[in-house]
Amino acid sequence: GPVFCDDEGERWALKAFTEKAFYPVLEAAGIDNPMVEGGGGVQRHKYTPHSCRHTFATLLKNVQASDKDKLALIGHTSDEMLRYYQDVNIADLEKITNEL
Fold first, then answer.
1. What is the distance between the alpha carbons of residues 94 and 98, in angstroms, rounded to a whole number?
2. How far apart are CA 82 and CA 76, in angstroms?
3. What CA–CA distance (Å, rounded) separates 77 from 63?
4. pLDDT tens digits, residue range 2-42?
5. Distances in whole angstroms, Cα of residue 80 to Cα of each of 63, 75, 76, 85
6. Contacts for 35-41: CB closer than 8 Å, 24+ residues apart
7. Which among 97, 100, 90, 14 has a CA at the least distance from the CA of 58?
């Protein structure tokens, strides 16, 4: 069932979750979340709940587990989506080239 609920036990809409839980947790953790210009000139926060999916999938690269299990954790079923969410970073690239 839903993890974040209103007083009646109903799942929060995304806007309620971001305003009541996600953004306050980032602030409490001391993570700056500035406003940036998105598509069409719309102002939005730099970090969104969706940003966490990228971070989580990227961290999963260093875990020895099946892709099927990793996909289940990020809520997708295709290998392409796992690779899409796994960001590339310089440290990982250096590790590969140093092995050469």
1. 6
2. 7
3. 18
4. 788 888 989 999 899 999 999 999 999 999 999 999 888 88
5. 18, 13, 10, 9
6. none
7. 90
Q: What token pair was written down for 84?
A: 């899409």
Residues 6+ apart with CB under 8 A from 79: 67, 71
| Tokens read off for 79 | 């290998």
Output the CA torsion 9→27→38→3 (10° steps).
-20
Which class for 62: exposed (0-12), middle (13-18), buried (19 or more C-beta within 10 A)? exposed
What is the tens place of the pLDDT at every residue in 2-12? 788 888 989 99
Could you write out the three-class secondary structure of the chain?
CCCCECCCCCECCHHHHHHHHHHHHHHHCCCCCCEEECHHHCEEECCCHHHHHHHHHHHHCCCCCCHHHHHHHHCCCCHHHHHHHCCCCHHHHHHHHHHC
